[in-house]
Specification:
Oligomer: homodimer
Strand content of chain A: 15-25%
Number of strands of chain A: 10
Radius of gyration of chain A: 21 Å
Number of helices of chain A: 9
Largest sheet of chain A: 6 strands, parallel
Distance between the termini of chain A: 31 Å
Shape of chain A: elongated
Bound molecules: calcium ion
């Protein structure tokens, strides 16, 4: 289970740096000999080829991959890649970058699980800085590494869970899971935010908790 | 107190749509006659001119603005605008978009409070989808409008606050403020996440809370 990064350009190279920092496995596909030579020098797993071709995806072991990032230069190439990859591996988690945010739907239809538009992300970030500055602070509080390291955990209540049928207080969730439960996602898709201590836990509930890892501060 | 949006292109137009949705006041500056004609038809406050010039900023009432968004086409134009605007109004909250993420420092030095790089935002979003999927879920839970509307509140403890000197439990924060306190930012910059009920509140503390507005679900 590795990630395949297709296209080592401005976006792809940044994604790779984050994956390296997180210690995750990945293989890069790029069609530039120069790019591949530099990656090989650095000892990074890579495939020289056209990522829209099945043979390149096979060389990157798409069969055992759990995610694929489509960051080729153009939207048509990324769409073609998305179709090829989802055809080869229907369950694959494909994350596609689009240059034109209007083409998001096309990518969804082609099998992309997530579609990221840098233009839309950037504009949204700017808008939130104006409309919801406190929200931005929270998100930074939660995601920024420097100030406070928080971890989000999702704890699904499976059949064998001893918490089922108990209230949050009875289940002593904070002590058992070591986290602050901020929401419960129910099986029907509803989410209960800040559930009270008397909330009764059901099979299929997913507890959404946040905690601060011990070796951070 | 309005926002000034400089440049109504791909980014600027998206920012404006969000400000409209939030019901906030803004004035757009753009140098295209065509763009201005269309905005005027829609009854949107705008100034035709070069946003890097003091006269355009004055026409957009920079004196009474509380924020300015720099989304002109090129980084040099946005940098020039940032310098001009921060010279005219030293305290103004300037949010600049950069095309080249490497130039962030230049913008900081020029007086931009926040610098947003769409390429870096997009890449960061993709990386988080792979490295911290649960974190992305939390952020979406907190920011997405559809599934659950949460509001973040920051409650600074000022001299007159009756909470100072009390513990969180004694202050009955949840009842008083109607929110779930997830963190306390202290005056010295430290942030205490998930503070316990016996945490004693001090002058200058900022309580970071989240709550769900009553008329949403
Ligand atoms: Ca790229
Ligand atoms: Ca723009």
């Amino acid at each position: 289970n590795h990630a395949i990064i297709c296209g080592y350009g401005r976006t792809g190279s940044r994604v790779v740096a984050e994956l390296q920092a997180a210690g995750l496995d990945f293989v890069i596909i790029d069609n530039s000999e120069e790019v591949i030579a530099r990656l090989e020098e650095r000892g990074i797993a890579c495939v020289h080829g056209d990522a829209t071709k099945e043979e390149s995806l096979a060389a990157a072991n798409i069969d055992s991959a759990d995610s694929l990032v489509a960051t080729l230069e153009t939207d048509p190439d990324n769409l073609y890649l998305t179709l090829t990859a989802s055809g080869l591996r229907p369950g694959l988690r494909i994350i596609a970058r689009v240059n034109d945010p209007e083409s998001t739907d096309k990518f969804r239809k082609a099998g992309a699980r997530r579609v990221v538009s840098p233009v839309a992300s950037g504009a949204n970030q700017i808008a939130q800085l104006i409309t919801r500055p406190a929200m931005v602070d929270l998100v930074e509080l939660v995601t920024r590494k420097k100030s406070i390291a928080l971890k989000v955990v999702e704890h699904p209540l499976e059949e064998t869970s001893e918490m089922i049928g108990k209230t949050l207080a009875e289940a002593r969730v904070r002590q058992t899971l070591g986290c602050m439960v901020i929401a419960i996602k129910h099986l029907d898709g509803d989410t209960a935010f800040d559930p009270g201590p008397n909330t009764r836990l059901q099979l299929g509930d997913i507890l959404v908790g946040i905690h601060q890892p011990e070796n951070s501060a």
